């Protein structure tokens, strides 16, 4: 039979074994129960109960130490994660996960303050199943989390849905109800005095959170705040390094672009200073920008081209560049207007460089500025030369000028007055005279002539072997240049400086006649105006007019010994009546018909029209009262003309 001492001793030994094993607290009552069953005395049972109480206290102390050890281990692990911080989201997820494990709650989550919106938003959740809850936003002061964010103090509730201390809102209560949360603990995330968010632990069953749990969650919140701040600093550092690298590259690129621009500017300026022309500038631009270059004037005429085929400037791109003051891209080419203030001097087109960067674009625009300077210099020289040429033309048209000295001055300007010339007087109702004069001067330079203003009209003197045809061509060309109809009265000036005064007077009369006839935009000589030219001209070639109008009939009479001219004169005198003409001629009417038919084949089918008949009658009268030279018989190889080109005011 066991003694009392043995019973107590065995019980204590068993209690120590249970402590060593970490047995549950309910098993510590077993030694006392066994002693009672064995019939232990009251003192023995009292001693054993006391030992059991001590063992349970030791068991509780060891449990608290193990819990504290686990908490410290979790905090140390979190600190280690922060030290190796690479991904902020991963660290925050680890913190919420450890908070869930240490506090043994159903859900943990972390929200951050959105300073721009003035509320908080969910950043990380652990154990949540509701999408509405995961996307929840809380205004400052709303719900438990909004109150924590606003006051920077921890708050806990055993059953949030029934707790009147908090400001309940429909969206918050709905989301909390959907997640079925009751007990909630929230602690602030602080960075110094500033609250940046809230860390939560929550259960789906009502419960109370003790001070130890509040302290533990606060420690994890401090770690989360450190993680967020560290990530922010790291991100700012990375961004600063990236910006520094980008700034360094930009500085290098700008430095390279500046050196390139300086070299380009020196090269282009050097071309201008040493008298280079537009073609040299175009070649230099093409070489600098590694593309083809074309330079055009305001009307789109090509002035120069380098490393490119012909390409008209896009009118829309030129207009856009002129209005914006910058080069513009269109269809794989770059276009820059060449400007002198608001005035358009032309344009530059760059081909083959659709990928032009900003530095290249500025260089292209600088090239346009240099081109403008070159064109202005050229225009200044041309204007000076035009002024000198205009003064010479004014002296040539003066009846009292020294012809010998004028011829010498003309040769110095490259004008050979020994060649046949045409004098052209210009007029436009729509185009300003300075613009018309500038266009005339341009044509004068191209044709080695002279242009100026004389008696309030723009006048052009240029070599011409066919003055009438040249006048028509000149009217069309000048009309295109000034964008308005230009009327040109012309007269042949012969050779030498003499006769120009009379030619100018004749050209003026021709211009007045053209305007009176409503032929604005046309060009002609008095001779080309038919009988009007004969009536108005001071130096009318009467025999030439007769030959022009009656030549085929005169030649036929000369070859055949006939008198068709006489028949024609009688026919008109008889009022164009075949019967009366037969009576005067004393021939059969069929003979008159045959002669008139022959005349029609010689003069053309419209010879009896009012305009032609008027010319024919005037020519017949002149032929009758004058003594024209006998017409030369045409060579055998020459067939008689079928008809003369239609003339007269109605057909001219």
Ordered list of secondary-structure elements with their pairings:
Blueprint lengths: L3 H18 L8 H8 L4 H42 L4 H16 L3 E8 L4 E8 L4 H4 L2 E3 L3 H9 L3 E3 L12 H10 L3 E9 L2 E10 L7 H63 L4 H12 L2 E5 L5 E5 L8 H10 L3 E3 L2 E8 L2 E9 L6 H39 L6 H10 L8 E7 L5 H14 L3 E5 L2 E7 L3 H16 L4 E8 L5 H17 L6 E3 L5 H6 L5 H19 L3 H10 L4 H8 L3 H15 L6 H16 L27
Parallel strand pairs: 15-16
Antiparallel strand pairs: 1-2, 1-6, 2-3, 4-5, 5-6, 7-8, 7-11, 9-10, 10-11, 12-14, 12-15, 13-14
Structure overview:
The chain contains 21 helices and 16 strands. The strands form three sheets. A six-stranded antiparallel beta sheet has the order 3-2-1-6-5-4. Strands 8-7-11-10-9 form a five-stranded antiparallel beta sheet. It has a five-stranded mixed beta sheet with strand order 13-14-12-15-16. Helix 19 (578-585) packs across helix 20 (589-603). It is rod-shaped, with a radius of gyration of 57 Å. It has 652 residues and is an alpha+beta fold. Strand 15, helix 15 and strand 16 (523-525) form a beta-alpha-beta unit.
Keywords:
single chain, 652 residues, alpha+beta, six-stranded antiparallel β-sheet, five-stranded antiparallel β-sheet, 56% helix
Helix and strand composition category: alpha+beta
Q: How far is it from the N-terminal to the C-terminal residue, by CA?
A: 160 Å
Main sheet record: 6 strands, antiparallel
Strand order of the largest sheet: 3-2-1-6-5-4
What is the beta-strand fraction? 15-25%
The number of E-state strands comes to: 16
Shape: rod-shaped
Count, helices:
21
Give me the Rg, rounded.
57 Å
Ranges where pLDDT stays below 50 over 5 or more residues in a row are 627-652
Percent of residues in helices comes to: 55-70%
Overall pLDDT level: 80
